[in-house]
Amino acid sequence: MTNDELIVKRLENLERQVAPLAAFAQAAGELREEIAPRINEAVQALIVELADIESDFQIEDLLYLLKKLMRNIGTLNYVLDQTQNLVDFAQTAEPLLKNSVPQVIAFLDGLEQGGVFRLLSIATEVLRKIGSTVSPEDMHQIGDGIVRLVGVLKRLTAPAAIDLLERAADVPARVDLSSARPVGLWGMVGAMGDPDVQKGLGVLMEFTKGLGALKA
Fold first, then answer.
1. What does the radius of gyration of the chain's CA atoms come to, in whole angstroms?
2. Model pLDDT for residues 141-162, shown as the tens digit of each residue
3. Domain range for 37
4. How many structural domains comprise the chain?
5. Is the distance from CB of 21 to CB of 29 less than 8 angstroms?
């Protein structure tokens, strides 16, 4: 191989090596030509936006903010740690919420189907009407009265009182008012021989004794 052929071969090798670089340079130039107008537009828009805050922005404020951040690095770290803890908690609670939310919805739907919310709405409306017609002083008085009534109901629910009320509730069913006739003095004397009348008078006497305590 002659020197001329060797030189030509080397030039061909160099041309093959330089060709990719030339292609890259050409592509970069084309890219620069394409994005240069966009960059100029972005810069112009940024200048316009910054002009709006130029009167409100002071370099001293930025320096003060940087100093404050540097002085409170520990606080910022604490806030970041707590934020991470909150994120961890949310990630842990997410499966539980996914399981519990449908149950809560089903429970609330059951209350709705059972008319509970409607009753609450009616009760709220009743309370609103009471509040518009009754003064706070009257409400306090009513509350005190309810407390006393609860005490009375407690005594009425004693076993002896319940037994007496049950027996008294059976009396109207055993009374035949259609057979009632006017009774005079002698009729009352004659009725005294009836055992049931005697028992009734005995019960009446016991009630009379109890009624005497009402005067105390």
1. 50
2. 888 888 888 888 888 888 888 8
3. 15-57
4. 2
5. no
